[in-house]
Amino acid sequence: MLSPTDPQLLSEVKFPDADILHAAHLLSDQEQSRLASLHSFLQTEIRPVVGEYWDKEEFPHELLPRLAEYGLGELEFSGASRLFKGLAYAEVTRADVSLSALVGIHNELVVDLLDQLGSEQQKEKWLPGLRQFQNIGCFALTEPDHGSDIAGGLATTAERGEQGWVIHGAKRWIGGGTFADFAIVFARDIADQQIKGFIVELDRPGVTKTKIARKMGLRIMQNADLVFDHVQIPAENLIPGAASFAATNVMLRNSRAWVGWQAAGVQLAIFDRARAYAISREQFGRPIAKFQLVQEQLSRILGNATATLGMMVQIAYLQERGDFDMPHAALVKATGTRLARESAQVGRNIGGGNGILTEHELSKLLADTEILYTYEGTYEVNSLIVGRAITGMSAFV
User: Fold this and answer.
1) Nearest Cα to 186, choosing from 230, 238, 225?
2) Strand partners for 157
3) Is 195 left (phi over 0), alpha (psi -120 to 50) or beta?
4) What distances in angstroms separate CA 29 from CA 20, 32, 92, 116, one per listed residue?
5) Using the 8-state DSSP alphabet, how is residue 210 labeled?
6) For the whole prediction, is pTM greater than 0.85?
């Protein structure tokens, strides 16, 4: 079966890359070259080997040094444009959605949070190792009984004592929580009822980590249940800039934009795999790519991918100008993942019976896309955030 980057295939199609409107051409020449190098690395070294890990629900730790060599542990320190960073997230997703989740959480919700909100001591201790993937942090906000209502319902507590803080509670669906060195834990301060952020090293007494197994998608990402049974941490583990939920909400806004880039990237992957399959698979004596229905389906996937990519290019522009806000993030997260969900269904259908085998990647992409549609705020919650912005009326209460 031909790869979408196979020279034979590239010579036979007018648009060898799915970016037919040339979003990447908006980058500087230097960033275009860097993105092309990243794409080649991810498609030749990463995508071909991750399927086995996905099947076994294992994480490929040995790939982290190579990801670090390409700067994926320190995108926020790269000096690159917002558009480059977004397209880099899309390219990682194009290779594997689970790894893109790790890279996105690492950069947007751990590294950038510590850089923006952490103390100088916290930055000096953690950022050098994080930038090279020598250390891993995880972002612990969601709880077993609180997801969409986490801002008002967060139940994990923090109590100030003579020795520092005592953290008590539970977190769920924490990406990388099984192997991270520390968690950024959000807990409600008993004294003032404010939600605050704390660094909790995961080897401290009272911390229990349990892998969430048998997931239908994002199987490489090691999600965990974390339990904190009166865990003692020093006073300096309070993240000074995360003393209220308002500061944290800025990070959540940025992470929803990152999921928009994931939605674009996964659709590029769906198109790549579906097109390669359609061109190489023969039925009735000819490639199925010659059939009208298959061509319509490929065009629909590409249209969805291009629409999502176009939205995200504009988001990068708003971010550069400082005009980016939560309704923008909610709109692209909801819309991009809705389109990705349709694209994934159509792509798997092009694969026919073979489409249910993970070796062809279409069913893997379908399952992973279902997770994108759900996390970082459900479609419904993000739609209501947009609805509140455009009507001036909240439907949450």
Assistant:
1) 238
2) 168, 188
3) beta
4) 18, 5, 20, 29
5) E
6) yes
Angle at 103 (CA atoms; ends 156, 172), nearest 5 degrees = 25
Q: Are strands 182-189 and 137-140 parallel, antiparallel or unpaired?
A: parallel
For each of the chain's 397 residues, which pLDDT tens digit applies? 445 445 555 556 788 899 999 999 999 999 999 999 999 999 999 999 999 999 999 999 999 999 999 999 999 899 999 999 999 999 999 999 999 999 999 999 999 999 999 999 999 999 999 999 999 999 999 999 887 777 778 999 999 988 899 999 999 999 999 999 999 999 999 999 999 999 999 999 999 999 999 999 999 999 999 999 999 999 999 999 998 888 777 777 888 888 999 999 999 999 999 999 999 999 999 999 999 999 999 999 999 999 999 999 999 999 999 999 999 999 999 999 999 999 999 999 999 999 999 889 999 999 999 999 998 888 999 999 999 999 999 988 7
Beta bridge partners, 186, equal 197
* Closest residue by Cα to residue 186 from 229, 142, 123, 230: 142
- Give the count of beta carbons closer than 10 Å to the beta carbon of residue 147: 17
Angle between helix 292-321 and 82-95 (nearest 10): 140
What CA–CA distance (Å, rounded) separates 311 from 339? 12
Burial string for 350-384 (b: 16+ CB within 10 Å, else e) reads bbeeebeeeebbbbbbbbbbbbbbbbbbbbebbbb
- Reduced to 3 states (helix: H, G, I; strand: E, B; else coil), residue 55 is helix
Give the integer Cα–Cα distance in Å for 150 and 37.
40
Task: Report residue 337 as tokens.
Answer: 């993942």
Instruction: Report angle CA 269, 105, 22 to the nearest 5 degrees.
Output: 35
Paired sense of beta strands 207-211 and 182-189, if any: unpaired
Q: What is the CA radius of gyration of the chain?
A: 21
Say if residues 19 and 268 touch (Cβ distance below 8 Å): yes
Tokens (6 digits) for 241: 């800039």
Ranges of H-type helices in the chain: 7-10, 29-41, 47-56, 64-69, 82-95, 97-104, 112-117, 120-131, 150-153, 245-280, 292-321, 326-350, 362-374, 379-391
> How far is it, in rounded angstroms, from Cα 258 to Cα 264?
10
